[in-house]
Amino acid sequence: MRFFSDNAAPVHPAVLAAMAEADVLDTAYDGDRWSGMLDARLSALFETEVEVLWVPTGTAANCLALAALCPPHGAVLCHHDAHIQNDEGGAPEFYTHGAKLLLADGEGAKLTPDTLRALLSTIRVAVHQVQPHAISITNATEYGLTYRPDEVAAIGALAAERGLALHMDGARFANALVHADCSPADMTWRAGVTALSFGFVKNGGMGAEALVFFKRGLVEASRYRRKRAGLLFSKGRYLAAQILALLEEDRWLANARNANAGAALIAAAAGERLVHPVEANEVFLRVSAEEAAALRDKGFDFYDWGPGEARLVVSWNQRAEDIEPLAAAIAALR
Amino acid sequence: MRFFSDNAAPVHPAVLAAMAEADVLDTAYDGDRWSGMLDARLSALFETEVEVLWVPTGTAANCLALAALCPPHGAVLCHHDAHIQNDEGGAPEFYTHGAKLLLADGEGAKLTPDTLRALLSTIRVAVHQVQPHAISITNATEYGLTYRPDEVAAIGALAAERGLALHMDGARFANALVHADCSPADMTWRAGVTALSFGFVKNGGMGAEALVFFKRGLVEASRYRRKRAGLLFSKGRYLAAQILALLEEDRWLANARNANAGAALIAAAAGERLVHPVEANEVFLRVSAEEAAALRDKGFDFYDWGPGEARLVVSWNQRAEDIEPLAAAIAALR
Amino acid sequence: MRFFSDNAAPVHPAVLAAMAEADVLDTAYDGDRWSGMLDARLSALFETEVEVLWVPTGTAANCLALAALCPPHGAVLCHHDAHIQNDEGGAPEFYTHGAKLLLADGEGAKLTPDTLRALLSTIRVAVHQVQPHAISITNATEYGLTYRPDEVAAIGALAAERGLALHMDGARFANALVHADCSPADMTWRAGVTALSFGFVKNGGMGAEALVFFKRGLVEASRYRRKRAGLLFSKGRYLAAQILALLEEDRWLANARNANAGAALIAAAAGERLVHPVEANEVFLRVSAEEAAALRDKGFDFYDWGPGEARLVVSWNQRAEDIEPLAAAIAALR
Amino acid sequence: MRFFSDNAAPVHPAVLAAMAEADVLDTAYDGDRWSGMLDARLSALFETEVEVLWVPTGTAANCLALAALCPPHGAVLCHHDAHIQNDEGGAPEFYTHGAKLLLADGEGAKLTPDTLRALLSTIRVAVHQVQPHAISITNATEYGLTYRPDEVAAIGALAAERGLALHMDGARFANALVHADCSPADMTWRAGVTALSFGFVKNGGMGAEALVFFKRGLVEASRYRRKRAGLLFSKGRYLAAQILALLEEDRWLANARNANAGAALIAAAAGERLVHPVEANEVFLRVSAEEAAALRDKGFDFYDWGPGEARLVVSWNQRAEDIEPLAAAIAALR
After folding, report:
1. What are the Aromatic amino acid beta-eliminating lyase/threonine aldolase domain coordinates in residue numbering (chains A, B, C, D) (predicted)?
2. Three-state SS for A14?
3. D327 with D273: CB under 8 angstroms?
4. Nearest residue of D to residue B230 by CA position?
5. Which chains touch B (3 or more CB pairs under 8 A)?
6. Taking CB atoms and an 8 Å cutoff, what residues of chain D touch B227?
7. Helix (H, G, I), strand (E, B) or coil at A52
8. For helices A173-180 and A251-270, what crossing angle results, to 10°?
9. Could you give the CA distance from residue A235 to residue C87 in angstroms, rounded to a whole number?
């Protein structure tokens, strides 16, 4: 049983079905009827007029967002454990033409107004130093913690005060949202978010994410940047169809609830072993090398996460009965 | 009936079937079994050891190739009607960090050693001028002409003589190949091609192309560039599966033959109206505005291509019976 | 006697003297008193509030201007013989992060509204094509022709109509201005120029040019770009002092008048041999290889400019008595 | 009396004299006789064949070096207080097209093999993470400490072991060298340094630094990059002349010795107040706000350096009699 990541799971059956339905001739690029529905569909979801671009990967969504929010000579503030800093192979620097990521601290990869202020205080307003233009937060974070809407809003208020844009990397936005049990609007634009990378790949999609702009005037140049990055599929309808299929019948929320519930099962069994509270679908455990080996012997796969720690991620399609043996095996380690 | 382009057609049934087969958990990125088969599969096809990266779009394939072949301070020689110059939204400049495209002439968007030499003769060897590092040709060309292997080899010889790499944009490689009726090897590395953008999207694929390197030492940095461009799908197996499905049973060749045959049908009807010889699946016609309107009235859609000209492209899945009415309508214009 | 170019001449004595005067401790970068005078000095000259940055080279001035006027995904329209296209080693692409130069025609390297409109008409408004954001003209041109204020204004009107910025590469601005015998204001902002590369290096300076912004809101980011390009001298006063020294007592105009007069002397002797009218300090001659050799034998150095042509450039400091022997030698070729 | 920095001092009289001597017509760019002497002059100094480019600023030298040593998709390891990270306005990212600076720790802004190893151990060899290609150290450091040759060699050995290049930012190379009392060769290539930014601006120069390559094959592309960055002065002789003048009669060493001696005077007076040992020409003092104000009241200017600290820098031209009053004033604070 694999708990490496939620990024390689099969896709939701409704996604495959929707792609088969889209398998008809239609206008190229994003001129088709599926792509044409995205703005309205997501505007309804977010209770405000949004502008949306499909893109194939989370890295593409994040980096097109950053390029829209920060000039080449500027900086984006993020956590030192942020995905954009550590796991995107320098894509932020590629898309922004060399903007700097300036790194802040925070428990569980969460930024706070205080850690951001501490970072901001080190930057002189002078051409010698790269000036901040945006903040990027990840929700849920790289350690499976989530920001509540009020926590986002506190950062949003700081961003507004300093004239910074606010980006949310929502590769696991659904998981954060169902944990917070709030509306998409409360988690984003009402809390000051300028642009959201709305993730579907880890939520039952195949290769489609939605880049959502809450502020007017950002999508236009982003369309050019998307093309210029080789991301404009000629058969874009297959990407739009994935997003629409997961939004339909709230599948995205159900998928996230299922994954979070699986992680909660493991967390309950892990007790004191938990490195971080489990708020989404990721579990970080303290396990010795012997214990990790014992779990692997029983057929459970996962990543080591530094010495004495392991990361387990539950995917949208893993069922309680898949997870209970793992939970039991972890409990039995005690 | 749409003859706008071959880039928006539905996908081949075997492609959808292969994607459904790949809909199982496997290792992320390109660690899966489908991705793992590409190098061997294409090495067999090309009768030499090649290194292959899947990418989602033709623009991505072209521009990763150019970035591998030309430094930021260098230049790529191409035709002034090349797709990389006119239709990729500046992606070559993005991926190469600002390398220049230097533009040569040639009938039907075909370069020749002579037009390339004429261009090269204008470039002084001096830091003031951007120095050539690569040549890029498109086969079949933007006007539906093809290079024969000996024509590629003549350019390949010039490239070797001047120390330049040679890239082939093969968005319609299959169409060119079946016209030339030669082996993939003869059309590429045996003729001096360094890297090939091997197109599948216009050949029955959904969103997958193969970037093929014939020279060692180029793929390694390209892996990093692919990730850095946000092109590394976490579920790469769905891309590899598309490519493998089209190669299987020589579907890619059958699809190209069918499209070329459709274009030949139109060409036969068009006679003197042809702007260019029809060697692949594109037809350029001389038609007056009234004639174009008449064709559209009968339900045939296509692009105007400058004043008095029209472009019609036949897709992999259009059948003779779809095309005959168009051919008849064109013939009836006389 | 060297007529290779005006870019390597010694500096005006007043420039050296001013640099020696500036050889005192003052605030670093552009916080010194000389740098602090530039805005006011040039605002007076241009009869409007301008914002000015010193930079060390013409390439730096041009490319910082282009970066201020065109985003990475945009295009700059210029003549196919423009210095930014042919002689700056790809610096425009470096500074703009890969914007494209789109090339227009025109006699003597001069653009006209008609040739610009012809170029613009080839660009579809679509993400597939790089969209124009600016026009760049060179005055005096690479062939020593000049734009009159009304010619600049005609291009400025087109730029305004299409929402494009207008940059003037004024490496030889002084030479153009004295030929037109108009005010700096008439030649620039009153004719629609957004930014001017105001050249001093070819006018008796050592290594200082003025980048002049006629539109508010462009200088701020340019300050960051100047630093980011490694162009912000810590001892900037030595650059500002050069500019101020040449402006003082209208030395820049006297120097240009002298150089233009020298070229006129040659032109008068050359008669039918002239390839272009001589309006500034450059002369292009038709000479056979034998004639060129004969001139060189007499000690006159210059560049061949394609087969059967030669370029001779008169520098600010060459006196009539230096030039008369050359004029006589040319006349004697007949 | 100003102790803000050593970057704004007047230039050495020999520099001005050499520039006046170079004020004759010679070949443009670096074709002149002064530029032509640099390779041989610095090869003699470094006791090995080196290749040298003049550039106008330290930022330009550093960033051209980094661009030669690290591809756009790579990383440079440096100290978190390095000038390239904090004070060059993102120039490293501009010149390298977005390479990342990865930050290591170390007392007094000095890297050690241990802190570098700790940083390297966090980087997985995978396309998701930006891979290291070079190390950059500053000697003397931003806090006025120096690396001894054996310390450089230890880092050089690590670099060699890991296949990394080693860059030395030598904005204050002279100050470090006279402190170590070793040969330039021992401090650089014999210790594994690949490229040196050899600073002259802080050592009596006006606007010229030498970028020195100790490894073959790096200078060629750097020549193109220098042009492409707008750094290739047409009157390059005035830059080369500065460098040659400071090397002549070992003026650069005398200047550094003088500045270091001045700093030592202050250090001796400061005693317990010193934040770092004083090994070059910078002094960091613990002073209360009141004490700082008292010093300023007496006419001494300097930067606050965080709360309770001050930075004082001695320039090449400050004499003992200039400094003694400051030393006395500091001593009197006790």
Report:
1. 3-288
2. helix
3. no
4. D128
5. A, C, D
6. 127-128
7. strand
8. 70
9. 41
Task: List, in order, residues 6 or more apart from C91 with CB less than 8 Å away.
Answer: C59, C60, C62, C63, C84, D227, D228, D229, D230
DSSP state of C4: S
- Find the chain B residues whose C-beta atoms sit closer than 8 A to any C-beta of D: 29, 71-73, 97, 127-128, 131, 221, 223-228, 232
In this structure, the number of other CB atoms found within 10 A of the CB of residue D161 comes to 10
Identity of residue C295: L
Tokens of A27: 């206008």
Q: Which two tokens stand for residue A304?
A: 């080591």
Complex ipTM value: 0.97
Q: Which of C96, C122, C128 to mutate to test the interface with B (most CBs of B within 10 A)?
A: C128
Residues 6+ apart with CB under 8 A from A5: A202, A303, A313, A315, B28, B234
Please report, for residues B55, B83, B130, the alpha-carbon distance to residue B134 in angstroms, rounded to integers and kept in the order given. Answer: 21, 16, 12
Q: What's the rounded Cα separation, in Å, for the pair B299 and B295?
A: 7
The strands making up D309-313's β-sheet, listed across from edge to edge, are D282-286, D309-313, D303-304
Q: Which residue has the tokens 């006419």?
A: D299
Output the six-digit token pair for D40: 């041989």
Residues B229, B10: contact at Cβ < 8 Å?
A: no
Q: Which domains does chain A have, with CATH numbers?
A: 13-249 (3.40.640.10), 251-332 (3.90.1150.10)
Longest dimension (CA), chain B: 59
Closest residue in B to C75 (Cα) is B90
- Which residues from D are below 8 Å from A97, CB to CB? 97-98
DSSP count for chain A of H helices, then E strands:
14, 10
CB within 8 Å: A90 and D96: no
Q: CA geometry: angle at D181 spanning D180 and D182, to 5°?
A: 90
Contacts of B231 in chain A (CB under 8 A): 56-57, 60, 230-231
3 state DSSP class of B55: strand
Q: Is the pLDDT of residue D207 over 80?
A: yes
Tokens read off for A111: 């930024």
Separation between Cα atoms, residue D50 and residue D37, nearest integer Å: 12
Q: Give the model confidence (pLDDT) of B17-71 as tens digits.
A: 999 999 999 999 999 999 999 999 999 999 999 999 999 999 999 999 999 999 9
* pLDDT classification of C1: cutoffs 50, 70, 90: confident
Instruction: Check C95 against D2: CB less than 8 A apart.
Output: no
The residue assigned the tokens 């204008």 is: B122
The number of angstroms, rounded, from the C-alpha of D103 to the middle of its chain's C-alpha atoms is 18
Answer yes or no: are the C-beta atoms of B196 and B184 closer than 8 Å.
no
Q: How many CB atoms within 10 Å of residue D329?
A: 18
- By the 8 A CB rule, do D283 and D144 touch? yes
Question: What digits encode the pLDDT tens for the residues B310-330?
Answer: 999 999 999 999 999 999 999
Note the pTM of the prediction, 2 decimals: 0.98
Does C234 contact D56 at a Cβ distance shorter than 8 Å? no
- The stretch A140-151 carries a mean pLDDT of 98
Which of helix, strand or coil describes residue B2?
strand
Quick check: A260 and A144 in contact, CB under 8 A? no
Q: Out of B89, B93, B97, whose CB is closest to C127? A: B89
| Chain D nearest CA to A305, separation (Å) | 11
- Put simply, the answer to whether B56 touches A207 (Cβ < 8 Å) is yes
CB atoms within 10 A of CB A296: 12
Straight-line distance from the first to the last Cα atom of chain B, in angstroms, rounded to the nearest whole number: 21
CB distance A233–B207 less than 8 Å? Answer: yes
Cα–Cα distance, B233 to B225 (Å, whole number): 13
Report chain D residues whose CB lies below 8 A from the CB of C26: 8
pLDDT at C77 (0 to 100): 98
Chains within contact range of chain C (3+ C-beta pairs < 8 Å): A, B, D
